[in-house]
Design a protein that fits this description.
179 residues, mainly alpha, two-stranded antiparallel sheet
Length: 179
């Protein structure tokens, strides 16, 4: 870009010099936003015959177009993000419900196995006590086996299902990963 004084210094009437712009082909406007969607023009360069001021209208229109596209893209990104958050919340809620269901099933299976084992132990103690009484006869009350039977009966009393905590359906107060 070259600036040529319009008035010779000796003929000036003010302290400010006025210059006339001479196109050099180096002046360029550029929109530094990418990507350039819809093949939007992003550079305007002055040439020997083409002046930049003749291109300002097109430059401004493209600036507005790109700004509008960026605003629309930002709005669409925001909508996509909100949808993703909603879907993520649904997924986490479903995962949480599945964890509660799995916990209920696990408790049911464990407690069923516990009850089955206690009932098997009761049946065993009943059967072995009858066999011990048959074998030991009068010696049963003072025998080591009778002490073992007393201990086994105490074990059953401590572990009777009537002393167990009742299962709960509402497990919301238990810790489950919610993200």
């Amino acid at each position: 870009m070259f600036l040529v004084p319009m008035v010779a210094p000796e003929h000036r009437t003010s302290s400010y010099s006025t210059f006339e712009y001479v196109p050099s082909g180096k002046l360029c406007f550029e929109i530094l936003t990418s990507p350039y969607e819809n093949y939007a023009r992003h550079t305007w360069q002055e040439g020997k015959t083409l002046k930049i001021e003749d291109q300002i209208h097109e430059f401004i229109i493209n600036m507005i177009h790109i700004a509008t596209m960026e605003k629309e893209n930002a709005a669409q990104d925001e909508i996509r993000h909100k949808r993703w958050l909603i879907e993520e919340e649904k997924r986490r809620k479903q995962e949480w419900l599945q964890q509660m269901e799995n916990s209920r099933i696990k408790t049911l299976v464990e407690e069923t196995e516990r009850l089955v084992n206690i009932n098997r132990i009761k049946d065993y103690i009943t059967a072995i006590t009858e066999e011990g009484k048959r074998r030991l006869g009068e010696n049963y009350p003072d025998s080591d086996f009778a002490k073992w039977v007393d201990w086994a009966q105490q074990f059953l009393e401590k572990n009777d299902c009537r002393s167990w905590k009742l299962p709960k359906f509402d497990l919301s107060n238990q810790y489950f990963f919610m993200g």
